[in-house]
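Sorry to interrupt, but I need a hand with the structure work. Leave the record below and I will have a look:
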Amino acid sequence: GNIGGANVLRAGGWGAAVVVAFLDVSKGGIAVLVARAFGLSDWMLGGVALMAVLGHNYSVFLRFRGGKGVATSFGTLLFLDPALALWTFPIGLSVILLTRYVSAGSMTGGVAAFVLSLALGRPLWEVATVFLMALLIFWTHRENLKRLQEGTERRLGERAEAR
């Protein structure tokens, strides 16, 4: 249904999924690195991070379709605030490993990043950026939320059905 790593895993296996995840993380990270190289202000860095995620989610090259923005959000966070990203990652990953629901881990990771940004006293621009990225993750996972409630969400490792 989209170009995200979880769907690539289901359709193409682990090798393809790892490559896609690496590229999606890199896409977000490179956007932040380039913005920093140009000396953009903190608020502008947050805007660049959000635009990288929106560009992934609604790509002009794919008729405004794309992925769900989790890996790209992580990539932007990794280069905006490595400590926050490295605290958030194991939380989301633990939920994925415990439940085998990538969507649940993704949304949990978004919430964890926001809560941790508050708890760690991060600056307002960063808290706002993380909050908006978490909202985007929930928005792109709204169908997954319905399937989780209905008990029909696919678990990690379940292959996609041929169309």
User: Anything to note?
Assistant: The CA atoms of residues 51 and 101 lie 27 Å apart. The mean pLDDT is 92.
